[in-house]
Amino acid sequence: MAVSGRGLRRALRASPLPAWRQAHLGARGNLKPEYDAVVIGAGHNGLVAAAYLQRLGVNTVVFERRHVIGGAAVTEEIIPGFKFSRASYLLSLLRPQIYTDLELKKHGLKLHLRNPHSFTPMWEEGTEGKVPRSLLLGTDMAENQKQIAQFSQKDAQAFPRYEEFMNRLVSAIDPLLDVAPVDVAAFQHGSLLKRLKSLFTLKPLLQAGLTLGAQLPQYYQVLTAPITKVLDQWFESEPLKATLATDAVIGAMTSPRTPGSGYVLLHHVMGSLEGTPGAWGYVQGGMGAISDAIANSATAHGANIFTEKTVAKVQVSSGGCVQGVVLQDGTEVRSKVVLSNASPQITFLKLTPQEWLPEEFVGRISQLDTQSPVTKINVAVDKLPNFLAAPNAPGDQPLPHHQCSIHLNCEDTCLLHQAFEDAMDGLHSHSTLPTHWLEARAGTNRRKMLMQTKCLTALRPMPLASRALWWAETSSHHLIWRESLGFLEGTSFTAPCPWTSSTSPAPCPCTPATGAPSPACISVEVGPIPEEASWEQLDGMQPM
Known about the structure:
The chain has 19 helices and 20 strands. The protein has helices at residues 5-13, 19-26, 44-55, 96-101, 141-148, 153-173, 184-189, 192-198, 203-212, 216-224, 227-232, 238-249, 261-269, 288-300, 344-351, 359-366, 413-424, 519-522, 535-539, and strands spanning 37-40, 60-63, 75-79, 82-85, 111-113, 118-121, 134-137, 272-273, 276-277, 281-283, 304-306, 311-316, 322-327, 332-334, 337-340, 405-406, 451-452, 471-472, 477-479, 523-525. It has a four-stranded parallel sheet. A hairpin with a 5-residue loop joins strand 12 (311-316) and strand 13 (322-327). Helix 5 (141-148) packs across helix 6 (153-173), helix 6 packs antiparallel against helix 9 (203-212) and helix 12 packs across helix 13. The chain is globular.
């Protein structure tokens, strides 16, 4: 394995070393001047390509810019003692054939199915001594109906039919993901022979249409309409519609009222895991473990993977043929084939010589919109969250709702739409109110502890980075990791910490003169909520 001293130290600190890294360290990682194929970037897609090529006898090398492989599917110890899936965090959409072909289980992949799927606690007062309601959905249809019936008996009866409707659409489209798309260019400009050959590419599409049958117009609406329009035709209760609608907006700069958002929801129910359609799961060891398994499969057949090797440009001959790549340190690696796992913008606007690309193509790549509202927060905690709607068990043992996706401020589709509008205006979400599912109100028997973890994002163009105020019942001292709050080294802030009420045992340690947060501002001591504290006053605390 060819790594720098810094990279080698990082590698040796990990225990045990992944098989792909052990293989390269043992072989001393000699970089050859020529390979059959070069893959730029060791994200999971690049690794899959390398594994397949190497199995076909194509001598393949992968160059990764970072010290760790995986791209978005990566595990890193960003807080001492805690390893995180820094970007992607669940597995479902990796095609089943890849599991089989690359023998990922043999190469160390271990999965745990997520069940239940989602937990949505309601922001409401309990009545007649009962806790607030919540919606917990999983694989047990009878239990799902019981949960939904809290909000609507009609919706509880409709839910199995809705699931059957969506599953039929998935079964029709799923085969299309593993076949070559229709060659539209051949139909338009190809010879008669090419047009006849292209007719065969229509077969899977026609089969999908036959599967959908007379309901094709309704399924077409799922792919093109706002998800709110689709869900309104099935259900009446907002908690259920909003919970389902989160899958139509997550990861996309879109509203549930945006045409086409229905496809985003479909995309999130099209996967499968362990032979279970629509299932999502956790990877043991974090998402980096699946990247390691794919890399192990590739190197077991002879592929080479190099970290901390940045590709500076793709070399093209005077005749317009790819000749290989040049690394940042000036090393030239020849190859007849170059595959890029980098983004289209980096691949075609930075790595590829512009003179070989059509001007119209470059223009389209330049206009690609990859804007996203996603802010992922990784936090090390000392205990499980305790929801008013689902109090913890004695001894704080994990309950089912602790093991699934937890949806906060998602009990109404209007909240999702308002959050989208705030994001489009470059603001944090005003619809994200203090999370009363977690806090203990003054005067109750619960421990009256409150933590303020306001993320200051003044002058930072990162929509939804702060997600307004988060209140939590927890212990008396908390270390909030800088990255979890959106802080970056060198970032300047113009607003002092808003935590200045009498509920804090000490004045805010921020330095108003510079606006820079001190470490003490990130580690906040909190005390009991005084009886005289007004929740309206607390809710109104905002950065200036």
